[in-house]
Amino acid sequence: MTVQIAGVASTPFGKHPDSSTRELFTDAALEALEDASLSVHDIETLYVGNFVGDVTDDQAHVGAMVADYLGARQAASMRIESACASASSAARSGVQAIESGDADVALVGGVEMMSASGIGEITDALANAADNEYENEAGLTFPGIYALMAQTYMNEFDASQEDLAAVAVKNYENGVSNPLAQRQEETDVESVLESPPIATPLNLQDCCPITDGASAAVLVSERYADEHGLGTTVEFAGSGQSSDSLALQDRRDLSRTRAAERAAETAYERADVGPDDIDVVELHDCFTIAEILAVESLGFFERGEGTRGALEGETAADGRIPVNTSGGLLAKGHPVGATGVAQLVEITKQLEGRHPNQLDDPTVGLTHTVGGSGASCVVNVLRTGGA
Amino acid sequence: MQPWFIDFAEGIDDGEPVYLACEECGSTALPPRTVCPECGTRTLEERSLSETAAVTASTRIFSTIPAYADETPYTVGIATFDEGVKLTGQLRDADEVELGETVTVGVEQRGNDGWLVTFSPTG
């Protein structure tokens, strides 16, 4: 009994000053339901990822709020929070609800409204994913945390700022053809290096933007898809989630993300695939260094060789292992609590053959979503194969 | 700010910093842990920590949270003690620091009950 993906949708990512958490999520959810040919009354379980809403909106209880405004009051609803990995955790939970037999139809997604807050306020809110006492009180920001990881990596493996910038250049280029992406313009290595410093060695274009956005996916049991003739063609193949120390200082190796390694191992095992079987990847490039660490954690490159991906075109859309054909977080944008399902939306479109950056017949895709500096990581694997 | 961190910071301020060592597996950690994160036993013993450490990584921060908005740019680093634990702190008396450089670990009081860990190069 597999879990099928019946419909997916993301709103445009960027600024939505006239919308709100409840409205933006409803937009994505209704589009995903329409894509699935199902109605709001079919939803039995609703899990929504949201990270900073209770800080930016003074509004918690987001699960019930979005179920209410979606017209799905019958659903068991819950907000799932694991920082930037919230929506990926919500998707896992939806899969588990169906696999357990508790539900046949689960709506999973995420939403974040970030642009209305000032840069200081939103940086403060995002910092809640870090260790408040040991990191925030020392004035260490999120870009700062990743900057420490970047510096460590660059020293250890003789990598340069140019090597990091190559990741931004690739992902910006992919974002150009994604109509939902926040940044739809190319950049070059020089522009990345000349963009304002945020936390050395990371510059502005090494960092994902502040984004409003929502994403949703309708998950159904194989039996339900069959009985209702939904014609699904993509299924959940496996999932893994793991944790690591909350604070970066408590890791033996600052440039290694062990939660990602463990989550990937579990997801590969459950999906009965390995890194060589993956045709398309959406991974958590909140900063350029994050993509380099991720391609190593996921087993696509040996440790210390992740820079090769963007530099030598191996992770380009026409490369050996295409990474972030959507533009990734760097170009597509990063509405934190929505990102994990936004990644699943992109992979589903690739496997269904309707992606704006369509690859040649991919059959297995993977998403990788990181919470904080790597204290949470979720890896989900999808593959073609319908009910 | 949590009471455990105030205790930890006051320990540094008094010249009596502490860390935790596991009697079972020998791994080390910073408070307030009850369980050893490596082996899962509850055999952590409080021991006194060195007052200097070596810089493992550092970054100069130009864009920050409101609490530090008026102080940019400033440098934050992670330093490693001989005992094995690592700690995050803000650099004092210099803008840049070499990796491996020895720093004296201190604290500064911020506001009513806030404490900030600081690193000052010994050289």
Tally of distinct domains of chain A: 2
Question: Biggest interface and which pair forms it?
Answer: A-B, 37 and 38 residues
- As a whole number of angstroms, the C-alpha radius of gyration of chain A is 19 Å
Q: How widely separated are the two ends of chain A?
A: 10 Å
Q: Based on DSSP secondary structure assignment, what is the total number of beta strands of chain A?
A: 11
Largest sheet of chain A: 5 strands, mixed
CATH architectural grouping of the largest domain in chain A = 3-Layer(aba) Sandwich
CATH topology of chain B: OB fold (Dihydrolipoamide Acetyltransferase, E2P)
For the record, the CATH class of chain B is: Mainly Beta
How does the overall form of chain B come out from the CA principal axes?
A: globular
Query: How much strand content do the residues of chain B show?
Result: 35-45%
Class based on secondary structure composition and strand pairing of chain A:
alpha/beta
Low-confidence stretches of chain B: none
Oligomer: heterodimer
Kindly state the percentage of residues in helix of chain B.
Answer: under 10%
Enzyme class (chain A): transferase
Domain Thiolase N-terminal (chain A): 3-183
InterPro entries (chain A): Thiolase (IPR002155), Thiolase-like (IPR016039), Thiolase_C_2 (IPR055140), Thiolase_CS (IPR020613), Thiolase_N (IPR020616)
GO molecular function, one term (chain A): acyltransferase activity, transferring groups other than amino-acyl groups
Please name the defining characteristics of this protein.
heterodimer; A: alpha/beta; Peroxisomal Thiolase, Chain A, domain 1; 2 domains; 5-stranded mixed β-sheet; B: 123 residues; mainly beta; 1 helix; NA-bd_OB-fold (chain B)
Structural account:
The complex is a heterodimer of chains A (387) and B (123). Chain A is of the alpha/beta class and 387 residues long. Chain A has two domains: 3-118 and 210-234, Peroxisomal Thiolase, Chain A, domain 1 (3-Layer(aba) Sandwich); 126-207 and 236-384, Thiolase/Chalcone synthase (Peroxisomal Thiolase, Chain A, domain 1), CATH 3.40.47.10. Chain A contains 14 helices and eleven strands. Chain A has a five-stranded mixed sheet with strand order 1-7-4-2-3, sandwiched between helices. In chain A, strand 10 (364-371) and strand 11 (376-384) form a beta hairpin. In chain A, helix 1 packs across helix 3. The longest helix of chain A is centred in the first third of the chain and has 16 residues, at 21-36. Chain A starts with a strand and ends with a strand. The mean pLDDT of chain A is 97. Chain B starts with a helix and ends with a strand. Chain B has a single domain, classed as OB fold (Dihydrolipoamide Acetyltransferase, E2P), CATH 2.40.50. In chain B, strands 4-5-6-8-7 form a five-stranded mixed beta barrel. In chain B, strands 2-1-3 form a three-stranded antiparallel sheet. Chain B is built from one helix and eight strands; from the N terminus they run αββββββββ. Chain B is 9% helix and 42% strand. Chain B has one helix spanning 3-13, and strands at residues 18-22, 28-29, 44-48, 52-61, 74-80, 86-91, 102-110, 114-121. Chain B has 123 residues and is mainly β. The A-B interface holds A 119-121, 123-124, 127, 132-141, 143-144, 147-149, 151-152, 155, 196-202, 245, 247-250, 254 and B 1-2, 4-5, 29-30, 37, 56-69, 71, 73-74, 76-78, 86-90, 99, 110, 114-117.
